Amino acid sequence: MQNNNVPESIWADGIPENIKEEDKLTLEILVGMATDYLMKNLLIPLGFKIEDGFPRPELPNIVMKKDGVSYAIIICPSVLPKYMIVNDEVRLKFVQMCKERNTTPLMAPVLYASIDKDRAKEGIALRGDVFRTKCPGFIILNDEPEQDLTLADESKLFRPE
What we know:
Elements lengths: L26 H17 L5 E4 L9 E5 L2 E11 L8 H13 L3 E11 L2 H6 L8 E4 L4 E2 L21
């Protein structure tokens, strides 16, 4: 008997020979998937009130509040082994906007890897595939000229409770 709760990929194992452009997940789709993942699996269960983020392609991608503190999130979805970050110019404008609105600026790295080991190794994200998804925490953005946005030091991550 098959378990209907376990999603299955529409793709056969391995890397397809002829991947069309329309088969690939776009940044917009990945941001939408990440928004959904963050809200359903992390933010709402932790008691955050989502004020905007359904999905929201413009920045901030999610606006939320908890215990009187407002947060604005830039979502950076990455298909491993690649890791996407926000560039300094966008980060600095975003931090300034958040200061003006008395909002804490956050970057949410949301990491995706296909459940297929070959596609995961090559960083291939296809429509209809199934992914392991992880958000290790949030990076509080600052207005320094440069900021290390890698996940090298996970002790610096903000993990909401």
